[in-house]
Write a sequence for this structure.
């Protein structure tokens, strides 16, 4: 597998697959958790869905999916590791 570039490029008008086309304005202030993907050594944020029931996303390199459910009591943890 080829190494991914170590930079982020924003191109106006393109949708970000990590946020499923949600505008950056609507993400401002939206709850998020940090995920480190052991599979590729990559890190990203997952934003809570509009229903407030889960955090969903994928590895930015290999696209492995991850989902964290929001439950009663919850947790104070903000960072997680996906194997």
């Amino acid at each position: 597998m080829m190494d991914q570039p170590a930079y982020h490029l924003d191109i106006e008008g393109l949708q970000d697959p990590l946020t499923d086309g949600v505008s950056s304005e609507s993400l401002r202030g939206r709850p998020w958790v940090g995920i480190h993907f052991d599979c590729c050594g990559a890190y990203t944020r997952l934003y809570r869905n509009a229903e407030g029931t889960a955090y969903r996303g994928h590895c930015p390199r290999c696209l492995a999916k991850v989902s964290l459910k929001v439950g009663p009591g919850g947790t104070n943890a903000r960072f997680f590791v996906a194997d």
